[in-house]
Amino acid sequence: MAEHPTGIPIQLEPLVVRVLAPNPSPFTHTGTQTHIVGRTDVAVIDPGPDDPAHIAALLRAIDGRPVTAIVVTHHHRDHSPATRPLQALTGAPIVGAAPFDLDDAGARADASFDSAYAPDRVMVEGDRIEGNGWTLEAIATPGHTSNHLAFALPETGALFSGDHVMGWSTTIVSPPDGNMTAYMASLEKLMGRDDRVYYPGHGEAIEKPQRLVRGMLGHRKQREGQILRLIREAARSIPAMVERMYAGLDPRLVPAAERSVLAHLYDLQTRGLVIEEGEAWQTKT
Q1: Which 3 state secondary structure label does DSSP give 155?
Q2: Is residue 176 reached through a cis peptide bond, with omega within 30 degrees of 0 on the bond before it?
Q3: Mind listing the pLDDT tens digit for each residue in 179-230?
């Protein structure tokens, strides 16, 4: 994207600068967006992959200011590995999402969990970190991952939404850690807030966040309806459902679509609406 080049600081508002990492893919869009919050001292949100050019770009954007915290929304490999070299260079604590070790490489190879992620402080709903003129408040938004956090900036009404709400696509929800029931509840939770703008981990700033979240809820309910209609016609496997539901899908995204359908089926199963018989799913009679 010529208007948002890799490694160049983009001032989004007086307290927020964005730096794009050089890791574009079908799953990350143009790459992971690191946000730097503050004026005289700063927090670095989702420093991204352990890429020397990106870390050098972050240091240029920080420009010698004290780093109060390195903040992580979730520890997928496109978000958290740069915490370690950045901590070594700045001495800042790593804070945010809780760590755990889970092999989740099946749906998207770029976003399996960063097993070396080791925060100095785990944050939960309502926890805050503060600097000179800024505050970041943790908002628990599980679904994309069980440990996902968003961070509100109450001074300006901004929300750093990580991968829970992105500016270019709906997020993947991939079991076993991704959970559609939790994801939908987290979207409903955001609907109850009045944030002015979302700054996502991927894609453009979201200037009308309530409208987008409402649309995302509707999109997921539409997918759920498609699944139920298909398996009411006949018991079907997940690949058969994906073939019907996602006509013309990029073949590289088929595994992710299958994981998303599985997440919907698990949610429907929890609600007592469907059952699994071998590799096929059918409505519960």
Answers
A1: coil
A2: yes
A3: 999 999 999 999 999 999 999 999 999 999 999 999 999 999 999 999 999 9
Which residues fall within 8 angstroms of residue 282, CB to CB, at 6 or more apart?
231, 234, 235, 236, 274, 275
The H or E element containing residue 54 is helix 52-62
Taking the CA atoms of the chain, what radius of gyration do you get in angstroms? 19
| Chain region(s) in the chain for CATH 3.60.15.10 | 10-207
What is the Cα–Cα distance from 239 to 252, expressed in whole angstroms?
14
Say what the pLDDT of residue 13 is.
97
Domain topology for 10-207: Metallo-beta-lactamase; Chain A (3.60.15)
End-to-end CA distance of the chain: 51
CB 227 within 8 A of CB 190: no
| C-alpha to C-alpha distance for 190 and 98, rounded to whole angstroms | 21
CATH of the structural domain 223-283, one choice from 3.90.1150.10, 3.30.428.10, 1.10.10.10, 3.30.450.40: 1.10.10.10
Q: Please tell me the predicted confidence (pLDDT) of residue 3.
A: 53
pLDDT tens profile 146-175: 999 999 999 999 999 999 998 877 888 989
Residue 15 has pLDDT above 70, yes or no: yes
Structural contact between residues 224 and 270, judged by C-beta atoms closer than 8 angstroms: no
Q: Look-up: residue for tokens 């519960």?
A: 284
Q: Specify the DSSP class assigned to residue 144.
A: S
- Could you count the other beta carbons within 10 Å of the beta carbon of residue 54? 25
Q: Where are the beta strands (DSSP E) in the chain?
A: 10-13, 16-20, 33-37, 42-45, 67-72, 94-96, 121-122, 128-131, 134-140, 149-153, 158-162, 197-200, 236-237, 274-277, 280-283
Phi and psi for 27 in degrees, rounded to 5?
Answer: -105, -25
120 phi/psi in degrees, rounded to 5? -80, -25
